[in-house]
Design brief:
By secondary structure, this protein is an alpha/beta fold. Helices cover 47% and strands 18% of the residues. It has three domains: 107 residues, 3-Layer(aba) Sandwich (Rossmann fold), CATH 3.40.50; 73 residues, Helix Hairpins; 165 residues, Heat Shock Protein 90, CATH 3.30.565. The chain is built from ten helices and twelve strands. A five-stranded parallel sheet has the order 2-1-3-4-5, sandwiched between helices. The structure holds adenosine-5'-triphosphate and magnesium ion (MG).
Length: 398
C-alpha cells in the first residue's frame, strides 16, 4: 500500500508583497494577516531593489509580485527576481488590463497570476498553497532531471571506456608477442652480428627504438584495460613524486626547467600502487615540459585538506565523491606553457586525443592517468590557469 504523506495546508507562510500601490498593498496585507491568518511573516516592499534586500536577509518562501514597480517594469521584474532567487515561489498580482503580461510571466518562472479585485482571502490562500506545491514539484523535477543527465553521461563515459578497454586489450595481446619476437631478433642482430657499416647499425638501432616505443604503447593499453590488478601499499606521496621527477630528470635539465616545490610536512600515507601513480605523475610532468619553451617553470604543491575547495571544477561523477569527513591529499602541478585551446579541453582525457601526434604523442597519457586515479578512488582535473599554462589537480582519499 502506498504511504500517504500528510501535508499541513493551514501552515502559516513566510510572504513578501512587492507592490508600490499602497491601496493594493493594504488589501493584500489584510487578506494575509486577518484571521484565519495566512502569513506568519509578512514583508512589504514598494520597489524591486528593496524587495531584493528583504529576500536576501529573510527566509521568505513566496512573493506576491506586482510587475510594474518604480525601479523595474513588466517582464524584467520577474526575470531579475527569479534569476536571483530560483527557489522562491512567485505569484504575479496584475491589473485586469495586464492579462497578457500575466501569461507571459508564467513562462518565465511565475507559478500563477492573480487579477487585482477578482479574488478574496479564501481564493488567495488556495492559490498560494497550490503555487508552493507546484514550485516544490518543479524543483524536484529539475533535480531529478539533472541527476538523470549526470547518470546518463557517466554511463556513456563508462560504456565508451569499456569498449575502448576491450578493444585495446584484444589488440594489445595480439601485437605483444610479434613485437617481442622483433625486439628479441633485432637485439640479437645488434649484439651478435658485427658489421663495420654505420648505416646498418643505425637502421638496427632505429628498429629497436621503434619497437620499444610500440611496446610502450601496448603496455599502456594493457594497463588501461586491466587496472583491477593493482598492487597497493602504504606509501608516501612525496617519495612517489620525487621518484617520478627523477625519471624525467633528463628532459627537465635539457629544457632548463625550474621546479618550485611547496610540500606540506608530515603528510599522511596513502594506499596506492606506486608504479601506476608514478606513471601518472611522469605523464603530467612530460605534458608540462612539452608545453613550454626552454627556461619554463613547473610548480608542485602538495597539501592535505578535508575539503576540495574547487569542487565546481570536478567532473560530475566526482562531485559527490568527497565528503567533509574524508581527509584528502591534493597535488597541484602547474606549468607556464601554452595552455590548452578552450574548444579542445573537453577532449584531453579521450583515449588517443593528442595535439602532439607529429612529435611523438600518442594521446594515452591522460586517459590512462584518469583511469588509474579513479581506480584509486580519487579524481583528476586538468584546466587552464587564468594567466598562462595549465594546472593539473589530483585528489587522493587518505
Ligand atoms: N600541461 C599541458 N599543457 C598544454 N597541453 C596539455 C597539457 N597537458 C595535456 N595537454 C593536452 O592534452 C593532450 C593529451 O594529453 P595526453 O597526456 O593524454 O597525451 P599526449 O601527451 O599527447 O601523448 P602521450 O601522453 O600518450 O604520450 C596533449 O596532446 C595536449 O594537447
Ligand atoms: Mg602525455
Amino acid at each position: 500500500m502506498s504511504k500517504k504523506i500528510k501535508k499541513d495546508y493551514s501552515r502559516p507562510l513566510d510572504v513578501i508583497v512587492v507592490e508600490d500601490n499602497q491601496v493594493d498593498a493594504r488589501i493584500l496585507e489584510s487578506m494575509l494577516l486577518d484571521p484565519p491568518t495566512i502569513a506568519k511573516t509578512l514583508k512589504i516592499a514598494n520597489t524591486l531593489s528593496s524587495a531584493i534586500k528583504i529576500l536576501e536577509e529573510n527566509e521568505i518562501e513566496i512573493a506576491i509580485l506586482d510587475l510594474n514597480l518604480p525601479d523595474s517594469k513588466g517582464i524584467d521584474t520577474i526575470v531579475e527576481i527569479s534569476k536571483k532567487f530560483p527557489k522562491l515561489t512567485i505569484v504575479i498580482n496584475t491589473g485586469a488590463y495586464e492579462d497578457e503580461l500575466g501569461l507571459e510571466a508564467l513562462s518565465l518562472g511565475a507559478q500563477d497570476f492573480l487579477l487585482k479585485g477578482k479574488y478574496n482571502a479564501y481564493v488567495l490562500n488556495k492559490i498560494l498553497r497550490y503555487c508552493l506545491e507546484r514550485k516544490r514539484l518543479e524543483i524536484e523535477l529539475k533535480q531529478a532531471y539533472e541527476t538523470l543527465k549526470d547518470t546518463q553521461s557517466q554511463l556513456i563515459e563508462s560504456e565508451k571506456m569499456k569498449v575502448v578497454g576491450g578493444l585495446a586489450s584484444g589488440v594489445a595481446h595480439e601485437v605483444k608477442n610479434p613485437l617481442a619476437t622483433i625486439l628479441y631478433g633485432v637485439t640479437y642482430l645488434i649484439e651478435q652480428v658485427k658489421m663495420d657499416d654505420d648505416k646498418y647499425n643505425l637502421v638496427l638501432n632505429n628498429i629497436k627504438e621503434a619497437t620499444n616505443r610500440a611496446n610502450g604503447i601496448i603496455t599502456d593499453l594493457l594497463d588501461f584495460a586491466s587496472l583491477n590488478k593493482m598492487n597497493r601499499t602504504k606509501s608516501n606521496i612525496v617519495d612517489v613524486i620525487e621518484k617520478s621527477l627523477s625519471l624525467v630528470h633528463y628532459q627537465i635539465s635539457k629544457n632548463v626547467i625550474d621546479i618550485v616545490k611547496d610540500y606540506e610536512v608530515d603528510l599522511p600515507l596513502l594506499m596506492i600502487d606506486v608504479n601506476r601513480i608514478e606513471q601518472v605523475f611522469v605523464n603530467i610532468f612530460l605534458n608540462a615540459i612539452f608545453s613550454m619553451e626552454k627556461n619554463g617553470k613547473i610548480g608542485i604543491r602538495i597539501h592535505s585538506s578535508f575539503i576540495f575547495d574547487n569542487k565546481q571544477a570536478l567532473p560530475s561523477a566526482a562531485k559527490d565523491k568527497f565528503n567533509p569527513e574524508q581527509k584528502l591529499i591534493i597535488v597541484e602541478i602547474d606549468d607556464v606553457g601554452k595552455g590548452i585551446p578552450e574548444n579542445e579541453i573537453s577532449r584531453i582525457f579521450d583515449p588517443f586525443y593528442t595535439s602532439r601526434r607529429g612529435s611523438g604523442g600518442v594521446g594515452l597519457g591522460l586517459s590512462v592517468s584518469k583511469n588509474i586515479i579513479e581506480n584509486h578512488g580519487g579524481s583528476i582535473v586538468v584546466e587552464n590557469k587564468a594567466d598562462c599554462g595549465v594546472i593539473a589537480k589530483l585528489i587522493f582519499i587518505v
